[in-house]
Design brief:
Number of domains: 2
Structural class: alpha/beta
CATH architecture of the largest domain: 3-Layer(aba) Sandwich
Strand content: 15-25%
Radius of gyration: 25 Å
Largest sheet: 6 strands, mixed
Number of helices: 11
Number of strands: 11
Length: 333
């Protein structure tokens, strides 16, 4: 039975439109060759003004120019960045919601295990390690410990005379000191505080033996003869403290690899095109002299490695801190 002429005409037109649509149809957001087609949200798990946030904003501004779309920093604070991590994990894996993470990304999962609600390696795809923030071991200027080996020697007496302060349980300073104790096979008393500032105050007062502290903010106290740098957690001596030996020179090689990191991650399943473009934009930003200088003023050393290199580093980082956490018996608060 033949179709009426007007119906047949409509069928031919529909077939033509389908064919044309298949050939020239508009690709959805995120399809190959179109990313990014809208602003990108970069979630930070810490408050505005802190080192992680400031580094994220410096990079986001420069990345926006490269990508041709705004990269907007969104602070989702709480639970030592756990809230931000879980929000990005649950986001669409389209490259438009990414996580600017830090050391806590690995540590939260190690301390909380199943309660953390995410796997730092399986639930995210690495984009690039943006920077490392080395720590320095400091003691009061009038401390009896002139060098790190002297402090370790005192700790080996076993009477609990040596203590260390930190910004809190499981933080970078806590982990660094526990790693030192594990490596040197000594026990040192942990004194946690609510933030780096109070910990440093107690060290300068001589009530706590030492602490591992970010590079930024230390120089003034050293110049004021309130602090002494025992060792720096970098591969080479720092120009700010030319007389302070590295951890390696003090008998603890490889310590520079333990420096806290900040880097970009995306939800697992994010298209390769998006990951590559985000990586390219970040590396270009990190290569600019102005960005390098800004990061260095924050005590950060630019990195900008590949997704594969960052993935390998994250795995090593997790394994390293897992050993320290187990050895020291660190528990989630």
């Amino acid at each position: 039975m033949k179709c009426p002429p007007h119906i047949a005409a409509w069928q031919r037109m529909a077939a033509t439109l389908v064919a044309v649509g298949a050939l020239f149809g508009t690709a959805p957001a995120g399809a190959a060759g179109t990313y990014p087609s809208k602003p990108i949200r970069m979630v930070v798990g810490f408050a505005a003004g802190g080192p992680t946030d400031v580094i994220a904003r410096v990079l986001a501004q420069d990345m926006s120019a490269t990508l041709g779309q705004s990269v907007l920093v969104d602070n989702k604070t709480g639970a030592n960045s756990l809230i931000a991590t879980k929000e990005v994990k649950a986001a669409d894996a389209d490259g438009y919601t990414v996580l600017f993470a830090s050391l806590s990304h690995n540590v939260n999962a190690l301390l909380m295990k199943e309660r953390a609600g995410y796997d730092p390696l399986k639930d995210f795809v690495p984009v690039s390690n943006a920077a490392m923030l080395p720590l320095v071991a400091v003691t009061a200027a009038n401390s009896p410990y002139q060098t790190l080996p002297e402090l370790i020697k005192a700790a080996k007496t076993g009477d609990g005379v040596v203590s260390f302060g930190s910004a809190g349980n499981g933080g970078s300073g806590h982990l660094a000191a526990e790693l030192l104790g594990t490596t040197a096979k000594v026990h040192m008393t942990h004194v946690p505080f609510r933030g780096n500032g109070p910990a440093l105050t107690e060290v300068m007062a001589g009530r706590v033996s030492f602490t591992f502290y970010p590079i930024i903010g230390i120089a003034d106290y050293v110049n004021q003869k309130r602090l002494r740098v025992l060792a720096v957690g970098t591969a080479k001596r720092l120009p700010e403290f030319p007389d302070a030996p590295t951890m390696a020179e003090s008998g603890f090689p490889g310590f520079e690899e333990t420096a806290p990191w900040v880097g970009l991650l995306a939800p697992a399943g994010t298209p390769r095109e998006a990951v590559d473009k985000l990586h390219d934009a970040m590396v270009k930003a990190l290569a600019k002299p102005a960005v390098k200088e800004r990061l260095r003023s924050l005590g950060a050393i630019p990195v900008g490695d590949t997704p594969a290199q960052f993935a390998a580093y994250l795995k090593q980082d997790q394994q390293r801190w897992q050993r320290v956490i187990q050895s020291a018996g660190i528990k989630a608060e």
